[in-house]
Design brief:
Low-confidence stretches: none
Structural class: alpha/beta
Radius of gyration: 22 Å
Strand order of the largest sheet: 5-4-3-10-11
Strand content: 15-25%
Mean pLDDT: 96
Number of helices: 13
Distance between the termini: 31 Å
Shape: elongated
Order of helices and strands: EEEHEHHEHEEHEEHEHEEEHHEHHHH
């Protein structure tokens, strides 16, 4: 599957420092310590609707991770998936009387356009679930042979992962079992499925149904993969047995990231799967979580169609910390538009305060768990001084613009 078109990222003088990043498993911020090459897997979209601001906020957060790592001199290997076959996609296609393949292709293409507009650095590998099915089937068979998976004895051909084969299950989310059981059915799980060994056992392979698409699974029989094993296999195949960051929205902590890590660790015998399990907060609208079920989504493509500058959208989503659940309002957008205009005026000023000091301060804020509000405050202070004429460095406005472009992804 093709990714979107990237853009040139300015090279800044010097080099940034190491990135400290929040890890859900350890419940705190810790240095990320890649050895020359940084690896990151971010869960992408299930393409049954357009890119909403929650998707955008998540992708911006991990785009910042890329930018800080690159500025520190690291090579970044970044993989993102597309869940281009799953129950929500099939349900939406049936509801709208549309071919699920056409729906997935259209929405994936729109997502690419939105990512380009938001200046998201594309992943090295952009991989669909469908193209990965042969590899996924092989890994499910390996788990069966290892005794970590089992078939249901009901003729469906469904295969489940036995969470007792992952003794550390729960270490990532740190959730008590009662809370896991409450969340599991809300996020695609089936705790009441008859024949399962444990209500929390996740689906690895769904045997073929007469009214659903399916693919050959070799000794598994025809069917299609479960969600969690999809991401585990794609990451293992392209990034190796362990990675630096597994990322996504905070609604993926459990069960998705918990289960995919358990699958990967059982397949490799190596733990933890990721050094950092890092998650972006949810975006709300008018006091409510933005979600498809509530019908209150704000779409990036709709904002673009209304001639809203994508840089203002990006800036507005970065005005609060990436881990915070935060609102999107008309005031947030208005403030972002005003700030963007002020920064553009400052970048065109004849001189500014020290560009080297600005760069050092922005680097320091972003290295501290992607503190975008702090970095934005630094840029605001610099811009105010430049516009007030309190400056004598003629090269600073250019470095100001390049710093914001390279590190925050804001093109002035």
């Amino acid at each position: 599957m093709e990714s979107w078109v990237g853009h040139e990222v300015p090279r800044l003088p010097g080099r940034g420092g190491p990135l400290t990043l929040f890890d859900a498993a350890r419940r705190g911020a810790h240095p990320s310590q890649p050895d020359g090459v940084a690896t990151m897997y971010v869960c992408g979209i299930t393409p049954y609707d357009a890119t909403h601001l929650g998707h955008a906020a998540t992708m911006i957060a991990f785009d910042l991770v890329q930018r800080v790592w690159r500025d520190a001199g690291l090579t970044v290997r970044y993989v993102q998936n597309v869940t281009d076959i799953d129950d929500p996609l099939l349900e939406r296609a049936e509801r709208d009387g549309e071919d699920w393949k056409v729906l997935a292709m259209r929405e994936t293409a729109l997502f690419r356009e939105d990512m380009e507009a938001l200046r998201i650095i594309p992943p090295e590998h952009y991989v669909g679930a469908v193209e990965s099915i042969p590899d996924i089937a092989d890994r499910v068979l390996a788990l069966l042979k290892d005794g970590a998976a089992y078939r249901l004895d009901d003729g469906t051909g469904d295969v489940y992962f036995d969470i007792s084969a992952a003794p550390e299950f729960g270490y990532e989310s740190n959730l008590p079992r009662a809370e896991m059981l409450e969340i599991f059915p809300e996020r695609g799980g089936d705790p009441d499925r008859a024949g399962k060994r444990d209500p929390l056992d996740p689906l690895l392979w769904r045997g073929a149904r007469a009214d659903e698409p399916s693919w050959p699974g070799g000794d598994l029989g025809p069917g299609r993969p479960g969600w969690h094993i999809e991401c585990a296999v794609i990451a293992l195949n392209l990034l190796g047995e362990s990675i630096d960051v597994q990322g996504g929205g905070n609604d993926l902590i459990f069960p998705h990231h918990e289960c995919s890590a358990a699958h990967a660790e059982r397949l490799t015998g190596r733990a933890p799967f990721a050094s950092h399990y890092t998650h972006a907060g949810m975006i709300g609208l008018n006091g409510e979580k933005m979600s498809k079920s509530k019908g209150n989504l704000v779409f990036v493509s709709r904002l673009r169609a209304d001639q809203v500058d994508p840089m203002a959208v990006r800036l507005g989503l970065m005005s609060d910390h990436y881990r915070a659940d935060r609102p999107w309002t008309d005031d947030v957008l208005a403030a972002a538009l005003e700030r963007l205009a002020r920064w553009r005026r400052a970048a065109a000023a004849p001189a500014g305060p020290s560009g080297a000091e600005l760069l050092a301060e922005v680097r320091a804020r972003l290295s501290d768990d992607l503190d975008t509000p702090g970095a934005i405050a630094v840029a605001d202070t610099w811009a105010d001084a430049a516009l007030a004429g309190r400056a004598d460095d003629p090269d600073a406005p250019h470095l100001f613009a390049e710093t914001l472009d390279a590190l925050l992804g804001i093109r002035l």
